[in-house]
Amino acid sequence: MKGIMEPSKHGRAAAGPIVRGLVVMLFAVLAASCQRPGQRLKPVPPHGDNPAPAGRSPEAYIPQPSAPISTLAAVQAEIPAFAGPDTIGFDRYSDRIDAEAQRILDEQVAWLQRYPATRVTIEGYSDLDTSSHFAFALAERRANAVRRYFLARGVQPSRIQTVAWGRDRLAPGSAPGGSANSNRKARSVIALR
Amino acid sequence: MKRMLTNGLVLMLLAAGAGPARADGPLRVDITDGENAPILLAVPTVRAGRMLAGGTTDPGELLASIIRSDLGGTGVYRLLDSPRSDLAGDAPDLAPWREQGAQVLVWGRVLTFDQAALTYECSYHDVFSGQREGGIVITVALRDVRRAAHRCADFAFRQTTGDPGYFDTQIAYVRRSNAGGTPVSRVALMDFDGAMSRDLSNGQMPVTFPAISPDARRVAFIAYNANQPQLVVHQLGTAQFQTVALPAGEPFSPSFVPNSRDLILALARDGDSDIFRVNPESGEVRQLTASPGSDVAPAASPEGSQIVFESDRSGQQQLYVMDADGSNQRRLTFVEGARFASPAWSPKGDRIAFTRIGRDGMRIGVMQRDGSDIRIIPGSGQDDHPGWAASGRALVFMRSGVAGGEPEIWRTDLSGRRQVKVSMAEGAAYPSWSGARP
């Protein structure tokens, strides 16, 4: 856990080649209910004994599996894990996508284009040291900046949803207490259609 | 309370000269800027003589203790000890309180109660003259028994100050909890003192930005339905939850426009947030701002003719004012090195509360409606989201980041000297304070 608490705003990209080599998979359909902030998801074995802890009281905001787990697992087995970082960072009060964020998003775009049966929800988060109202607007701006980036690179609009969480939630890897770059993030959650 | 007691000597001196000033009727005091001259107050305990059903609580003792807590928290009064516990007589015996220097006595007694309802007599007495200056009879359902005390305290507060009290009111808020690592949020409603909290939503959808109408009849909030934030209006006391149709985008920051059925809110889409006005019943929607940048946090003046809001159109967050139709937009705050946010218009119309984001972090404060006379309320952690008491003499706000913990809801007088934690939930955010309950 400690090793992936990021020193820079682009947490996962900065974690180093060894950690980067680990497979990060964000099939929110199957795995979101067991995820904690800052935790890397382990790849789910397609035919493992314990494919997904789906019974752990997912709330309404977690998409519910519409097909039985076994079916989803079979589909999932045909789509390799998205191996890149899912989260980008921003400067204070900013929605500008810098070069490092672009590299991360380019990996996501390539993956989205390779697997058209997927869609992406972009979650916007906000600095913790700003007003609750502005935090929501800023989060929407960040999520929308990522959306525009995806659109400009050919991802169909129908595959993209944005959601602003403001400072109500912490992005994975963020910690309360107002550390310098806390929660200035957007995260791409990739899911099967 | 502690602070009041340390001022005891000064108060005794003030008390000696306070009598003649009240010769023309109820004493008027102004403690807007602090505790200028707290009034020595007696609230005798008048026992009903039998217990509430199934309990060991005498309703007369309970109600007297609530009245003491209500009035004692305002800064207007200094409470005298109430050593005696009397059975109800027809009238209070003022003589022993006069000896202690009491100026005002609030006398409440239970007239009748059964398993369904309670009737309470509440009267206000000038101790020096021995005059009964007014009284009311209050009937409440027994499950709302605390409201009898709150309404008595409201009556006494108005007798003393001429302003409405804020005791028989409610605060809508977001109750946050954690279910096995998953954050859960619910819209909840509590009395102004944090008691009687109850949930209005079940936690299935994440919720945020609750707003209660000034008449305490409606609560609006934002609910994330499958990742899509929606504006929902709930009629209190009913099972009615209306999702309000809005233009495409993500709505947030709703608030009620006084003296109308309308709501104002912000709507974010394509990286731009603007302010809209909507009538949930007719469905009519009007866009009020259209400038680039984030226009957020609209709050209407009490007569509904003006709207104050927060915008970063100048490059950083500042407060702006416009007419209710969106015309005549103008900047209100110009302070070097500080951002201003989260405005709230006082029910008297004379002042605007806000959050200042500066070198000392986030602090709430109060200014005149023209942006002058900025006063910051001392705080800790990150203070935000101020809302007014019906009296215009107190604020509720959200305090976050204390020891990295969950947010809490606090109340303060305008001097900041009397700050009280209100919420009892594990996490409590986004307070919105009503006026008097129906």
What can you see in these coordinates?
The complex is a heterodimer of chains A (193) and B (438). Helix content of chain A is 29%, strand content 12%. Chain A has helices spanning 17-21, 28-31, 69-78, 99-114, 132-152, and strands at 87-89, 118-124, 160-164, 185-192. By secondary structure, chain B is mainly β. In chain B, 11% of the residues lie in helices and 44% in strands. Chain B has helices at 2-6, 8-16, 59-72, 95-99, 145-161, and strands at residues 39-42, 45-47, 77-79, 85-87, 104-113, 117-126, 131-141, 170-179, 182-191, 198-199, 207-212, 218-225, 228-235, 241-244, 250-256, 263-269, 272-278, 285-287, 295-300, 306-311, 318-323, 330-331, 339-345, 351-358, 361-368, 375-376, 382-388, 394-400, 408-413, 419-421, 427-433. In chain B, helix 3 crosses helix 5. Residues 1-35 of chain B have low confidence and may be disordered. At the A-B interface, helix 5 and strand 3 of A face strand 9, strand 15, strand 16, strand 23 and strand 27 of B.
Overall SS class of chain B: mainly beta
| Most residues in contact: chain pair | A-B, 38 and 52 residues
Share of helix of chain A, binned:
25-40%
Mean pLDDT of chain A: 68
Question: Which structural traits does this protein have?
Answer:
heterodimer; A: 193 residues; alpha+beta; 4-stranded mixed β-sheet; 29% helix; disordered N terminus; B: 438 residues; mainly beta; 5-stranded mixed β-sheet; 4-stranded antiparallel β-sheet; 5 helices; 11% helix; 44% strand; globular
